[in-house]
Specification:
This protein is α+β, with helices and mostly antiparallel strands and about 375 residues long. It has helices spanning about 1-20, 25-30, 70-85, 100-115, 115-120, 175-195, 205-210, 275-280, 340-350; strands at about 60, 90-95, 130-135, 150-160, 210-220, 230-235, 240-245, 255, 260-265, 270-275, 290-295, 300-310. The chain has a single domain (about 40-360), classed as B-lactam Antibiotic, Isopenicillin N Synthase, Chain (Jelly Rolls, Sandwich). InterPro entries: DIOX_N, IPNS-like_FE2OG_OXY, IPNS-like_sf, Oxoglu/Fe-dep_dioxygenase_dom.
């Protein structure tokens, strides 16, 4: 029994390595004309996508007039708080980022993934010390990961120390840097609304951060011959304070709401916002960091760009626990304190295994 398990894991690892060595990613598999999903991508039945619920209406918040009218401002704070408590997710429209910038961001990153493999190969790496990483499945070799995800990714940290233009692969460096400036403004406005929603000073969460950084993940999900067997990315929560995501019109993002999977409809000119683990911990479960996933599609390649607002795991040594001002006899702390570095290394060593990332800190 023992030896067959060793052989099984050895085969899986050698298949992972063979896939990794091509440096062509999932896009390379699709280009080669495969008609079946390779074994390393096939998920156990419990992790696969089942039918989605359609009777829920995903929250959409209009940010127009947010700084001009105090009544409108309060309404928006209430809507953001309500969505962050009940869903952990919402869409924003009239957010101030021109649709031309959103389109250029998606188009520029798509062009990178769709260029010749030989050109892309030179950027392929698993070296997490690099400021820009193009790879497929950063957690590929982690034993707890049930299967590889059907997606390729460019990951970079764009603030506070952005990569130099030379470090970015063409043709997406300039568009990402332009987009990150706009998304940073929006992210800080969202943190202000979220602070007010907790009954705190508007700049509380922004000031609370020790060493702010912004990570950016550009995700390319090629068409899949057997989408029911695999996933663009399995269920997970996000690590930081808040995530802002732009997606194209193909769709595939799903959110776990009241124990049911709900589609996030691709709405033109909108951005998807969700609460991260650290904000759930800081708010002592008032805001929720909710599990979400991306399903695979049979037709068309999906593109999304996610920006993660959080602390730098390399620079911040601050201990994070539930915010003191929110605690009382009736609301005691539900988490022990941790550092961003510890939480990041815990997640990095574990990989995406479909379970909650906050459970180790529960009191």
């Amino acid at each position: 029994m023992g030896s067959s398990r060793v052989e099984e894991s050895y085969d899986r690892m050698s298949e992972f390595k063979a896939f990794d060595d091509t440096k062509a990613g999932v896009k390379g598999l699709v280009d080669s004309g495969i008609t079946e999903v390779p074994q390393i991508f096939i998920l156990p039945p419990k992790n696969r996508a089942e039918k989605c619920e359609t009777h829920f209406v995903f929250p959409v918040i209009d940010l127009e007039g947010i700084n001009e009218d105090p009544i409108k401002h309060k309404e928006i704070v209430d809507k953001v708080r309500d969505a962050s408590e009940k869903w952990g997710f919402f869409q924003v429209v009239n957010h101030g980022i021109p649709i031309s910038v959103l389109d250029k961001t998606l188009q520029g990153t798509r062009e990178f993934f769709e260029q010749d493999t030989e050109v892309k190969k030179q950027y392929y790496t698993r070296d997490t010390r690099k400021k820009v990483i193009y790879t497929s499945n950063l957690d590929l070799y982690k034993p707890s990961v049930p299967a590889a995800s059907w997606r390729d990714t460019i990951f970079c940290f764009v603030a506070p120390n952005p990569p130099s233009p030379q470090e970015f692969p063409t043709p997406c460096g300039e568009v990402l840097m332009d987009y990150s400036k706009d998304v940073m403004k929006l992210g800080f406005s969202l943190l202000e609304l979220l602070s007010e929603g907790l009954g705190l000073n508007r700049s509380y969460l922004k000031d609370y951060m020790d060493c702010f950084h912004l990570g950016c993940s550009c995700n390319y999900y090629p068409p899949c011959p057997q989408p029911e067997l695999t996933m663009g990315i399995i269920q997970h929560t996000d690590i930081g304070f808040v995530t802002v995501l732009v997606q194209d019109d193909i769709g595939g993002l799903q959110v776990l709401h009241q124990n049911q999977w709900v589609d996030v409809p691709p709405t033109p000119a909108s951005l998807v916002v969700n609460i991260g683990d650290f904000l759930q911990l800081l708010s002592n479960d008032k805001y929720v960091s909710v599990e979400h996933r991306a399903i695979s599609n049979k037709v068309g390649s999906r593109m999304s760009v996610a920006c993660f607002f959080g602390e730098s795991p390399w620079q911040s040594s601050k201990l994070y626990g539930p915010i003191t001002e929110l605690l009382s006899e009736d609301n005691p702390p539900k988490y022990r304190s941790t550092t961003v570095k510890d939480h990041t290394s815990y997640l990095y060593n574990r990989g995406l295994d479909g379970t909650s990332a906050l459970s180790p800190y529960k009191i």
